[in-house]
Design a protein that fits this description.
This protein is an alpha+beta fold. The protein has helices spanning 2-45, 53-59, 81-85, 148-157, 163-175, 186-191, 196-202, 221-228, 262-265, 365-368, 380-383, 437-501, and strands at 69-78, 92-112, 117-128, 143-146, 181-184, 232-235, 247-249, 285-289, 294-306, 309-316, 341-343, 353-356, 386-389, 396-409, 422-434. The chain is 35% helix and 24% strand. The radius of gyration is 34 Å and the shape is elongated. The two termini are 30 Å apart.
């Protein structure tokens, strides 16, 4: 019996130890699994993993089953040009959307793990989608709008405070038949077309580009190399995963020379397609917006769901479009004008170009909307820029970038002396993409697999560990009862023996 009780005690102790170990595994297991999952995500996100789906989605979207990126053009047509030349408000008729699919490929890609740098040229081009643009033809439709070539040359050759050069420029423009407004196709306005006036100016200024464009539409890899001049350089994330896909250089430079401070000129941020993994809600993200030649902060707004995947929605930090009165830091971007537009003149060789959200969303509406007629009040759902980012991987699942191009206009000697001062909208564009169902399902499958493993570790740890502890307690109770019963027997035998001897 004594031997049997010892065996019972040993078994109970072993079961208790095993139960405690399993419960500890149930507590620690999810953390260990999550660490392993995070390591796997880090490996997938780094740019040296050329076999990962994340890398392939970033590298190119030329295959038929790759994600589709829509590029939509909404052009503003001036319907009362004669009255405008006499000092009336421009009346705008918004035409669109003209829908294109945007394709890209990072060509001449060189990966250097030792320096954690990936250098490449981005080749991008557009293909019009007539089925998505019923009744519209971006190449043959024409609109009346402000002339970007005219405004650019005037800003460079005719300072506003110099009446003599103003007169000379107006005379030259009159001789060449150039006017502040012109007719142009929506495609020509956005993707650029040869300007006879700029061809004329090029005779005197050989570095003048005869094509003014808002968006690149490169016909070949060679055209991309020629336009960019030097490759972009991205951080591969080898040294710090938080730096992955951050710009190191843009068009071969790490700092610009157009803005008013070293911080404003510094190249930083990602292109918005992907950020670093393991993002928290209280973390601001940085994008480099090549359309604006500057970086910008995006901030967390709310939790959303994209094709069944939880994501964080980010929007442009409102401080980015405040004027210098409300945000003195924006003095570096020369934003000493009413709130709501970003001054990008410095990035466009002095041409008075100002970028805003469509319909001047979040701007000084009393100021900007009152300068024109026909422009409806802004709608946040239609006109705001949003990024829906999956926080574990940093992948952008759903994005809509919406920008409006405005041209500052004013009286011109000889040509348009009665023209009123106005920030004139000429076009707004939307670049949007939504993760496809297959990619979303693959991502959900990976997340669900990890969740299942975590759940299994908890079930095994807490469930089986708990059962073993219960079994150990039962055996200990049995052991104690046996000990007590044995003690009773021993006491009885001792008392009986004493009676017999007496």
């Amino acid at each position: 019996m004594a031997c049997s009780n010892k065996v019972l005690l040993i078994i109970a102790i072993i079961l208790a130890i095993l139960g405690l170990v399993l419960i500890a595994m149930g507590i620690a297991g999810p953390f260990i699994i999550n660490d392993a999952k995070n390591d796997q995500i880090d490996d997938q996100v780094r740019l040296d993993n050329t076999d990962s789906d994340i890398f392939k989605a970033w590298k190119s979207n030329l295959k038929p089953d790759d994600i589709k990126v829509s590029f939509k053009i909404y052009a503003y047509n001036i319907t009362n040009l004669d009255e405008v030349m006499e000092g009336a408000k421009p009346h705008l008729d918004e035409i669109g959307p003209y829908v294109f699919y945007e394709y890209w490929d990072f060509i001449d890609l060189h990966l250097n793990k030792s320096s954690s740098e990936a250098s490449t040229y981005r080749w991008e081009y557009m293909i019009f989608q007539p089925d998505l643009s019923p009744g519209l033809d971006p190449f043959n439709d024409v609109i009346v709008t402000a002339s970007l070539p005219y405004a650019g040359v005037k800003a460079n050759l005719s300072p506003a405070d110099n009446w003599l050069t103003n007169l000379a420029f107006s005379t030259l423009a009159s001789v060449e038949g150039v006017r502040p407004f012109h007719t142009i196709s929506p495609a020509g306005l956005v993707f650029g077309e040869d300007s006879p006036f700029l061809e004329f100016v090029k005779r005197f200024k050989p570095d003048t580009d005869p094509v003014v464009k808002i968006q690149s539409n490169q016909t070949s890899p060679e055209a991309a190399r020629e336009e960019l001049g030097a490759p972009d350089v991205y951080d591969m994330g080898e040294r710090d995963i938080k730096d992955t896909r951050q710009y190191i250089k843009w068009k071969g430079v790490s700092d610009l020379s157009i803005w008013g401070s070293a911080e404003a000129n510094h190249i930083k941020g990602t292109d918005g397609k992907c950020f670093h993994p393991h993002i928290s809600r209280d973390e601001d993200l940085m994008v480099f917006e090549d359309d604006l030649n500057r970086h910008a902060t995006v901030i967390y707004q709310e939790d959303v769901e994209v094709r069944g995947i939880k994501a964080y929605r980010y929007v442009i930090d409102p401080k980015e479009i405040l004027n210098t009165t409300y945000n003195p830091a924006n003095a570096a971007y020369y934003m000493d004008l009413p709130t709501g537009v970003m001054n990008v003149s410095a990035a466009n060789q002095g041409a008075p170009i100002f970028v805003s959200k469509p319909h001047f969303l979040d701007g000084d509406l009393d100021y900007y909307l009152n300068q024109v007629s026909g422009l409806s009040p802004p709608n946040r759902t239609l006109h705001d820029t949003t990024l829906d980012v999956e926080p574990q991987t940093g992948i952008t699942l759903n994005a809509a970038k919406r920008l409006q191009i405005n041209l500052q206009m004013g009286p011109v000697m000889l040509l348009a002396p009665k023209l009123r001062d106005v920030y004139l909208p000429i076009v707004w564009v939307e670049e949007s993409a939504l993760v496809d169902e297959k990619s979303a399902n693959d991502l959900k499958k990976n997340f669900n697999t990890v969740s299942d493993v975590v759940l299994a570790s908890r079930i095994v740890g807490y469930g089986l560990g708990g059962l073993l502890l219960v079994a150990a307690v039962v055996l200990l109770v049995v052991y104690m009862l046996r000990r007590r019963r044995q003690a009773v027997y021993d006491n009885y035998d001792e008392a009986r023996g004493e009676l017999i001897t007496s």
